[in-house]
Write a structure and sequence with these properties.
Helices cover about 85% and strands about 0% of the residues. It is mainly alpha-helical and about 120 residues long. It starts with a helix and ends with a helix. Membrane-anchoring subunit of succinate dehydrogenase (SDH). InterPro entries: SQR/QFR_C/D (IPR034804), Succ_DH_cytb556 (IPR014314), SuccDH_FuR_B_TM-su (IPR000701).
């Protein structure tokens, strides 16, 4: 039941928050270099940022990590539902195992993506 609820929540979160972030990015891109630099300072990294931008920078990264987790949670849950639609995996033990693996897989995939991003940011 929890996997199904999280599937709906992450789908809505990806649609709403992801769309707003995407529109903000497009608006900043269309508004010119200064607006785009301000967008990047809020959601990514600006070594010269003041204290306000440092706070928004942390919040922006939290949102990006959250969107990454929501993506993987929704993806793995959707794959689980796909398997269930074939008629497989309804045994209680197997269903519980797949449900746990959805959560664990989403966390591990999110960690892997952000560790890769951090490594590229340090060495790139």
């Amino acid at each position: 039941m929890a996997v199904s609820i999280f599937h709906r929540i992450t789908g809505d979160g990806l649609a709403i928050v992801g769309a707003l972030m995407f529109l903000w990015w497009l608006g900043a891109l269309a508004a010119g270099p200064d607006a785009y630099a301000a967008f990047l300072a809020c959601v990514w990294h600006d070594p010269d940022a003041g204290s306000v931008h440092q706070v928004t920078n942390i919040l922006g990264k939290v949102v990006l990590v959250g969107l990454t987790w929501a993506f993987f949670q929704h993806l793995f849950s959707g794959l689980r539902h796909l398997v269930l639609d074939t008629g497989a995996g309804y045994e209680l033990r197997i269903n519980r195992l797949w449900s746990i693996l959805v959560f664990v897989g989403a966390i591990l995939a999110t960690a892997a993506v952000w560790l890769y991003i951090a490594q590229e940011a340090l060495h790139g």
